[in-house]
Amino acid sequence: MPLGSFLSPQTGFWQNAEDTAQNYDLNIQQSDLKGNAKVYFDERLVPHVFAENDEDLYFIQGYLHAKFRLFQMDLQTKAAEGRASEIAGPVAINYDKEQRRLGMKFAAENTLRVVEQDPAALARYTAYTKGINAYINTLTESSLPLEYKILNFKPEQWSNLRTMLLLKMMAKMLASGTEHDLENTNLRTILTSQQFNMLYPQVPDSLLPIVPKGTIFPRPMHQYQLPAGVDSVYFHNQIATAASSQYPEDKDNGSNNWVVAGSKTASGVPILCNDPHLELSLPSIWYEMQLTTPTSNVYGATLPGSPFVIIGFNDSIAWGVTNSQRDVKDYYTIRFKDKTKKEYWFDNAWKPAQQRIEQIKVKGEAPVFDTVAYTIFGPVMYDAADTVIRQDALAVKWMAHHTGDDGSAFYKLNRAGSYNDYVLAIKDFECPGQNFVFASTSGDIAIWQQGRFPDRWQGQGQYIMPGQDSSYLWQGYIPQSENPHALNPERGFLESANQRPADGTYPYFIPGTYITPRANAIEHFLNRMNSISVENMMELQNNNYNILAGQLLPVLMTHTNEAALTPEARKYLTIIQQWDLNAGPQSTGQTIYQFWLDSLQRNIWLDELVKAGSKVPVPEEQTLMELLKIDTTALGFVDNKNTPQVETLSDLATASLNGAAALLAQSEKDGKLEWAKFKEPAIYHLLKSNLPSFARTHLPVGGAGSVINAIKKSHGPSWRMIVQMSARPEAYGVYPGGQSGNPGSRFYDNAVDNWVQGKYYQLWMMQKGQEGDARIKWTMNFIKG
Amino acid sequence: MLMKFFISLFSIAVLSFVVGLYAPWWSIALVAFIVSLCISQKPGSSFLSGFAGIFLLWLILALLINAANSNILANRIGGMLGIGPRPVLLAFITALAGGMVAGFAALTASYLRK
Fold it and tell me: Which of A77, A530, A583, B16 has the fewest Cβ atoms within 10 angstroms?
């Protein structure tokens, strides 16, 4: 925006400086409404929407999402579609290319086509879209959200396709970074299959799976055919590739959820808990709402850009989600006839490839073009030139490319009244695979890992696969009824925290990017707890116990040669010996542990693994701990291959602590030995480090990726919810942000401090007849006409 | 003389505010220009009346908005523009920018009249 316009108190940024006593009362007349509706805002600016029918309900949800979060929705869907360069300029060209190569828009179009076959679903999405546009059409120069003024562009009309794009963005966040096929391929050029399976195990020794151990699984019906010559062609013939994603998703895009049965609670009714771990941002990814019609009533976290409540409760049930971490994306080599990428070799013939010419518009520059070839597998993600050593292009096959109407699972869940309704609601949900935890006022607790997953043969899709014929294609899908699930287990609780869903007896090959320790910590506590109260659950969601450090430290300390430690290292060893294993904000033990562990991991793995390229993941901390417990040479990896002598664990543990101590001393001098001071947790505005003054930094919170309170630097519990399933469910929740996306509003970040302190708000399911309640501060009237 | 100056200043401020409710920000230049065409003054006085009219209007508006907002946004924008959390300074910069635009518009009109 030109400076004069930006500064003008009548049109510029000052107009976004909201009166702290702002009155949100409003009358809105809309010809698209079928009836009248009312929205009651409480003191936290949470809207309680009362509409006469579904379409009006979602029209209003769209209107409110846009009114409070328009920039976020607009930015996220543009980014999903690969149009970030239109806003950010040339720096985003590569990001946009990657989005288009992955086929994000292709995936959204395919899903929209399915939605359009179902008139009722289409009507709901269309009402939502109309609601957003009704708000966009009210905007004037002065009422434009602040970010448009800063970046000097205008919001674009919404469409059903953009809703689908938003859902595909979630799919990408949760079901795209859950594979390491390219990295695995490179690792196999330096590791034997036995080493690979030990360092990157499918079933960790200490796994506590989502469905309790001992669950009997039915014999699978699958009848797949192994490709001819799979051993020599695939398993023992991996050629390194230089292709890799430039914008990988955070591997800790995970979550916790658990549910305890009435037998374990003080109240005698189930308690359900959920905290999804995502990138933390201002505004938050979540927006809290109550959505009510004469036939339905639901409260919870909604996702601006999509209708429905995603995580929440109604009068009869509560549900929550965590990510399944399952690998649903594979790469296939493609041999093009020539550089035009018009034909590729498949089943003994040249087969024509569909081509999409992608035009990437760039702010301030000429547009950039990219031709993306679509094969039978999916879009060609990497051209032959990108793969360098391999002279093949790579096509990507991804579950999210072809799904049904996943969003409507939430529509049904919002209205579910029983376990059976819940099962029916989620059974068609395909991607991203989620662990849907469930509790009902009738006393049931359950969990289903739901998604559509390929029925793979052992090892299929772990590495790049040959794409010259159909033999490596997915041959079928795991029947939905055989997705791992559990209902009312003896032990009285169920939990999921991104671990493998089932133990080794599950009769399918299910690779993924699983995370083991958090689930172990949750079970550690839930097993011991009885007469559980809501407050106990709040404490558990904020628990900082580092279970993995508790397992690994004794091994390291036993092998540390104290005589060979520097005085500094000895000092830090003393601190860590007295550490209570809590990664709290003031903990110095956690900082020392982290430095020591990082140093040790570098020393053990990098001398060998670096040969497979810098992007390969080092084995999990969990795997290291398990390995060292049985073999102190860690299959020989403890030895540094670059030195003539043979190093022992004692050498490495000692040297790593000495190395860490030097860095720690520096950190301590800077006043950064305490965990929160070192970690500097921060929540940035969506435009990140471009707008540091819009962020909340130096938050005094503890936590770590592998503890229950999974707060990393700016990633962690994006919504904490606890629901006690009393006759009228009693719920608590908090997210690190505020209901308004406007940085000039007092509701922009008003909940951050409570979140930091582990405090919760009571979530008020407003009933008809409570219109005079003191909690209601403002009212919007939606009037038909 | 002084009377003319104040009438001019006051007209520019009031008219700019009213027009600004409906028109883009650069209407301040238009208003200052037209007022200055109608009320004959020396170039220096013209400039000053335009400058002061908008300077005061924008300063008062910005300070009022900021007071109601408890500095929330001005602190953040101040950080973004590199002046730090100094809302009053930001209001002065705002007023200065508007004042200059209106001042030069008024000055132009005054020369045109000659």
Answer: A530
**CA–centroid distance for A102 within its chain:** 18
A223 touching B, CB under 8 A? no
Contacts of B66 in chain A (CB under 8 A): 14, 17
Which member of B25, B69, B97 has the closest CB to residue A20?
Answer: B69
Determine contact: A144 vs chain B, CB below 8 A: no
Residues 6 or more apart in contact with residue A204 via CB below 8 angstroms: A500, A514, A516, A620, A622, A623, A626
**Chain B residue at shortest CA distance from A687:** B80
* CA distance linking residue A209 with residue A199, whole number of Å: 19
Q: Which H or E run includes A436? A: strand A434-440
Among A3, A5, A13, A684, the strongest candidate for a mutation testing the B interface, having the largest count of B CBs within 10 A, is A13
Predicted TM-score (pTM) of this structure: 0.96
What confidence tens digit (pLDDT) does each residue in A572-622 have? Answer: 999 999 999 999 999 999 999 999 999 999 999 999 999 888 788 899 999
Residue A784 backbone dihedrals phi, psi, to 5 degrees: -70, 135
Interface A–B counts its CB contacts (< 8 A) at 89
Distance CA A369, CA A765 (A): 51
* Integer Cα distance of B35 and B107 in angstroms: 11
Contact yes or no for A706/A700 (Cβ under 8 A): no
Q: Residue B102 and residue A110: Cα distance in Å, rounded?
A: 55
Angle at A568 between CA A565 and CA A573, to 5 degrees: 70
Give the one of A5, A16, A693 whose C-beta lies nearest to B24's C-beta. A5
What is the pLDDT of chain A when averaged over all its residues? 95
Residue A4 near chain B (CB below 8 Å): yes
Structure tokens at A451: 């998604």
Report ipTM for this prediction.
0.97
Asked if the C-beta of A150 comes within 8 angstroms of chain B's C-beta atoms, the answer is: yes
